[in-house]
Amino acid sequence: MRPEILNPLFCSIDTLKGIGSRYFKLVSNLIGGAKISDLLFHLPYNLIDRTYSCQINKIETGKIWTGLVTINEHIEPKTKKQPYRIICSDETGDIILNFFKYYKDSLKKQLPVCSKKIISGKTEFFNGQIQISHPDYISDQSNADFIKTIEPVYPLTSGVSNKMMRTLMYQALLKLPDFDEWLDEKFKKEQNFLTFKESLMKVHNPVSADDLNPTSKVRQRLAYDELLANQLTLSLARRYHKKKEGRSICSKGLLKEKLLKILGFELTSAQQKVLKDIFNDQKSNYQGLRLIQGDVGSGKTVVAMISMLNAVEAGYQAALMAPTEILAKQHLETIGAWAEQIGIKVELLTSKIKGKKRTEILEKLKNGQTDILIGTHALFTDEVIFKDLAFIVVDEQHRFGVEQRLKLSQKGNKPDIVVMTATPIPRTLVLTRFGDMDYSKIDELPKGRKPVITKVMPVSKTTDVVRALKRKIENGARAYWVCPLIEESEKSDLAAAIARFEDLQKHFGDIVGLVHGKMKEDQKDAVMEKFKNGEIKILVATTVIEVGVNIRQATLMIIERAERFGLSQLHQLRGRIKRGYEEGVCLLLYGYPLSQTAHERLNVMKESEDGFYLAEKDLDLRGGGEILGTKQSGFEEFKLANLEFHKNLLLTAYKDAELILAKDPELKSKRGQALKVLLYLFEQDSAFLTYKA
Predict the structure, then answer these.
(1) C-beta separation of 426 from 619 below 8 A
(2) Among the ranges given (270-279, 607-616, 683-692), the one the predictor scored with the smallest mean pLDDT
């Protein structure tokens, strides 16, 4: 049950005066929810000083002025170009209010002659008179204290004014209760933090721009509370997984030795270290859940195969899930070839496989004839029944949330799960997004891999690029030509790809192919197959080729309008030409005007191939949701914390959460009870109820 103290904050915003059904949807869309807590967590980003007030004859023009006036006269315009004018005064002089868009009756009702009103707005001097066009505030004298203040400015949307947000926020703040302190008192004192309530009150009633700065003490306090709730939840999840009964997977490593003989090369020390982590998970009696990060070409597939072989040799089944059919088939090609030589059975299952063949695959799986099943998320539908699934590898599905990972772990008989990604993820995002998982990193490339030469040039040199491409193709090279992200629209991106495809066909004829996200899977497969076998030498593509596509013969990558891509995405694309042992060349074509951030991003790409370094830079330049490509996939952005400014607080929250649960795993102490309120406040209660068991 939610603690009673929070009930006022979980009421709907339509219980506040002045919102009504008309504005309910607009405001709830703006604040990302419909509760009063959502409103309170919608923080201002700027302020307007409305405290300047003096007699009319002393007004400095260009300033925002707030004052009490008497309404003297309404003057209707003689032409459509003229404003509706209202003459107002105090004992020292007149001020004119101008309205260019107006309803006459409404103005007469709101500003009746002889009435006294508080007016606030930007002053200007025109035709020898002080004027305000469309005042920001017109109100009765009783609201003077509300208006004549430092006004916080909120992020808005069409139809919602700042005045409305202030009115709603004023009411919402009255509902804020006094909470028992959930922070460690010593830490709170060291940081010079106010209470949660005082901090929230202050940020919504700023006295200077400093109060709104993310590095201010009030903003840091609020950020820390949100980060602590996040880290406490993930620590609870880690402990829950550690307590979840699994089963021990042990083998003598005979299949591993067979595979290593076939491969004919030694594993890197990084691969060996990660395998040791996975084997320890498999050997333990709890259910393993581990994130493996490895840069493009670092040998994650070999690690996945050896881990699966450990389960197969012990008499169990393994599964590998890929995000697309192209990648699932690619895994089948690699893993299937190894499996055939070792003597184990591998099958592919995708939504395209139907009828008799599907029935046959499902039957073999159920009776244990299949050792490893490869496929898309279709692997985990109800009809897919394993005889004894003990190990799952999830490839490039780092976008899975905590709850989805939990659901996945319920498939099969207490399987261990490894999530692999070639998208380098900064440490801060690993902590906030994957903190429920153990974590390993393959931070070394196999010997013999040559670096990619990255060059940056203006898009105006495209003609020269096409000439150089001709020479390369004549010498046997194959190339990707990636088309720009025009906007968040597949339609526009597709138009750009088709235009480039048609242009290159004029120069190169039928050796140019095209792939994009709107194509059917079998069409994409057919084009990729032609590119692989050399019928197609130049592949024009949207970012559909970003993850995992493996064509060793492709050594040239041209990325058009590269300034529109993020560092992590550029790195992923460049990784497509790091699959073989030949030197690759990546051309980043940029257009004007080039922003400072874009300029820095392209320079960093030219200087470094270290995906982990690039990921940290990308976080600084763009933010976490963009890096994981999760603005579209439900990645929870923090409301009060900003990782660009609050990284150090995140690491502290991580350590604090670990310490709290080491001392008080059931959160039964006085501070523990207060922390439960914190979890409910930030809606982490479902995780707490799940993981406390």
Answers:
(1) yes
(2) 683-692
Nearest partner of 575 among 337, 303, 300, 272, judged by Cα: 300
Per the CB < 8 A criterion, the answer to whether 605 and 570 are in contact is yes
Peptide bond into 593 cis (omega under 30): yes
The H or E element that residue 571 is part of is: helix 567-574
Query: In sequence order, what DSSP letters do the residues of 9-32 get, joined into one string?
Result: GGSBGGGSTT-HHHHHHHHHHHHT
The H or E element that residue 144 is part of is helix 144-147
Mean pLDDT confidence for 131-140? 94
Question: In angstroms, rounded to a whole number, what is the distance separating the alpha carbons of residues 235 and 227?
Answer: 12
Kindly report whether the global pTM for this prediction surpasses the value 0.85. no
Listing DSSP states for 231-280 in one string gives HHHHHHHHHHHHHSB-------SHHHHHHHHHH-SPPPHHHHHHHHHHHH
Cα–Cα distance measured from residue 516 to residue 497, given in angstroms and rounded to the nearest whole number: 8
User: What would the pLDDT profile of 48-62 be if each residue is shown by its tens digit?
Assistant: 999 999 999 999 999
Q: Other CB atoms closer than 10 Å to residue 174's CB: what's the count?
A: 9
Q: Tokens 């105090």 label which residue? A: 90
Which of the four pLDDT bands, split at 50, 70 and 90, describes residue 628? very low
- State residue 274's pLDDT score: 96
Q: Give the whole-angstrom CA distance, residue 219 versus residue 224.
A: 9
Please, what is the Cα angle at 634 between 631 and 639, to 5 degrees?
Answer: 80
CB-count burial class (<10 Å; 0-12, 13-18, 19+) for 22:
exposed
What's at 81, amino acid-wise? K
Are 418 and 410 contacting, i.e. CB atoms less than 8 angstroms apart? no
Specify the 3-state DSSP secondary structure of 480: strand
Mean pLDDT value of segment 81-104:
93
Confidence label for 234 from pLDDT (cuts 50, 70 and 90): confident
Where helices occur in 453-520 by DSSP H, the ranges are: 462-474, 490-508
Stretch 17-37: mean pLDDT, rounded? 92
Taking alpha carbons only, the member of 574, 552, 335, 550 closest to residue 452 is 574
Question: Can you read off the two tokens belonging to residue 350?
Answer: 């995708």
Kindly report the number of other CB atoms within 10 A of residue 177's CB atom. 13
Could you tell me which of 561, 524, 535, 539 has the C-alpha nearest to residue 469? 539
Q: In angstroms, how far is CA 218 from the centroid of its own chain?
A: 25
Give per-residue pLDDT as tens, 658-678: 999 999 988 999 999 999 999
Among candidate residues 204, 146, 147, the one with its CA nearest the CA of residue 175: 204
Question: Which residue, among 684, 681, 683, 688, has the nearest Cα to 176 in the 3D structure?
Answer: 681
